[in-house]
Write a structure and sequence with these properties.
Helix content is 45%, strand content 24%. With 146 residues, it is of the alpha+beta class. It folds into two domains: 2-60 and 132-140, OB fold (Dihydrolipoamide Acetyltransferase, E2P) (Beta Barrel), CATH 2.40.50; 64-125, no CATH class. β1 and β2 (14-19) form a beta hairpin. α2 (62-94) runs antiparallel to α3 (99-120). It is rod-shaped and about 70 Å long. This is Positive regulator of sigma E, RseC/MucC. It comes from Thermoanaerobacter pseudethanolicus (strain ATCC 33223 / 39E) (Clostridium thermohydrosulfuricum). InterPro entries: RseC, SigmaE_reg_RseC_MucC. The chain crosses the membrane at residues 70-89, 101-120.
Length: 146
């Protein structure tokens, strides 16, 4: 997936870029709230030695986006469902009167544990080159706001 962005700062061989949102962003909502008012800044490998203020093209593997979506949405959902199922079984064993409420709370506990696990592994995900964007092309010398 390729997107246009503006280089806002540099650090070594990395550059912080602000993604230029397209009209498709208002429909997607994957990055944040889908609002054009909020900016999305990411760090990217600066292979082209782009300078601050330049418009660049950044690229991230589609596989990385699918993997990130799976990690942030599917795994927590599976944890919640597993927690609800185990909560129902445990409620039967313990003869709990409000089985549904108990199983829901166990499901919430599992989803919290899953997100804690994802958070704990965040450094691993940051170090993985798969989740790193790359600047692949310098499109224009300076960005002009209208």
């Amino acid at each position: 997936m390729k997107e246009r962005a503006i280089v806002v700062s540099k650090r070594g061989n990395q550059a912080e870029v602000e993604v230029i949102r397209t009209s498709a962003c208002s429909k997607c909502r994957a990055c944040s709230s889908g609002s054009n008012k909020q900016t999305l800044k990411v760090w990217a490998e600066n292979e082209t030695n782009a300078e601050v203020g330049q418009i660049v093209e950044i690229e991230m593997e589609s596989r990385a986006l699918l993997s990130a979506t799976f990690i942030l949405y599917v795994i927590p959902l599976a944890g919640f469902i597993l927690g609800v199922i185990l909560g129902l079984k445990l409620a039967d064993i313990l003869n709990i009167m409000w089985k549904e409420l108990f199983s829901f709370l166990i499901g919430l506990l599992f989803i919290i544990l899953v997100f804690a696990g994802i958070y704990a592994n965040n450094r691993f995900f940051e170090k993985s080159r798969m989740f790193t964007a790359r600047i692949v092309n310098v499109l224009d010398d300076q960005y002009q706001k209208y």
